[in-house]
Amino acid sequence: MKRLWVDFNTLSSAPVDLVKIAAPGSADEQALPPLRQGERVLLYDADGLEVEAIIIHDSAGWWLALPDTSTWRDTIPASDSTPSLSHP
């Protein structure tokens, strides 16, 4: 499964609930691996979030992804306690 770095903040911009991967003709589009409409991929970000998603190539040429909300994962473990500070 291909892994694509994304900005999950794009979920809230139109079209809502789709991750925007790359605009047509953009440097982001040029950097993408070969993708197919309907392909399943793994999206991730710098904060450790991951989700499986289905690729959409819309009529305007945008590469988008529809997240499978049942697959959200946080790959950075939560700290169970506040680190203690030791003083010399």
In brief, what are we looking at here?
This protein is mainly beta and 88 residues long. The chain has one domain (2-74): Ribosomal Protein L25, Chain P. The chain contains 1 helix and 6 strands; from the N terminus they run ββαββββ.
Structure description:
Helices cover 6% and strands 33% of the residues. The protein is mainly β. The protein has one domain: Ribosomal Protein L25, Chain P (Beta Barrel). Strands 1, 2, 3, 4, 5 and 6 form a six-stranded mixed beta sheet that branches. The longest helix is centred in the first third of the chain and has 5 residues, at 27-31. It is globular, with a radius of gyration of 16 Å. The termini are far apart. The mean pLDDT is 91.
Percent helix among the residues? under 10%
CATH topology descriptor = Ribosomal Protein L25, Chain P
By DSSP, the count of extended strands is 6
Question: Which structural class matches the secondary elements?
Answer: mainly beta
Task: Enumerate how many helices there are, as a single number.
Answer: 1
What would CATH call the architecture?
A: Beta Barrel
Q: What would you report as the Rg, rounded to the nearest angstrom?
A: 16 Å
- Which percent range describes the beta-strand content? 25-35%
Give the H and E element order: EEHEEEE
The first-level CATH class name: Mainly Beta
